[in-house]
Amino acid sequence: MSWSKDGRGGPRGYHHGNLKEALVRAAVELIAQKGPAGFTFADAARWAGVSAAAPYRHFRDRDELIADVALRGFVMFEAALAKAWDEGRPDPGVAFERLGRAYLDFARTEGPYYSAMFEAAIPLDANPGLREAGDRAFGVLRGAAERLVSLMPTGQRPPAMMVALHIWSMAHGVASLFGRSDGGRRALPMPAEDLLEAGVLVYLQGLGLVRPHKAKDEPPPGPWSPGGAKPPGSVPPAGSRRTS
Question: What does pTM read for this prediction?
């Protein structure tokens, strides 16, 4: 897939005053073609149609250029996740499923950005802006985990940060192995979205956050809610207890 406007590879010229944007576009295209480690600073300059010295007007080196791509990616990533979560509407279970699908969709449709974000090994300590952008994107997932955990009885709630990290690890693993847009995607006998949904369901069920799906005609499992199904161990309604 080509991320250039006309779909062809090769050098591009740039309009006066847009050198920085031309270099960012060059980096995105080269990452799509060769990966974040597969090109040099001079390659980016050549793709943008400028001299090898020109990029230094805006970027210290190739890593700083890729860091700019990654930062932009995290901003888009945060927006995509926030839109999918939508403050947990219409209910946290449905919104959480949308969140997982949005994660995979971003990895698939914005492959060069995703690669720059997670595969370029840019040192975060030297890029506080990049770290903050990544934290804001993760904050959407953490907020969703906090909402789900809050539905459990107080004494049974796992740490929301732990839940968010586990879900993030699962989503990232599925995206990296089975949801890529490049040739590194592994074969899978089902959609990547179904694999992630099943894995998250098993995980949340283990925490007591979803009802086991037993009957064939029952609706899909959903998270526990104060006004809905009760968590395991609660007192059953009168008349439903088994007698010995």
Answer: 0.79
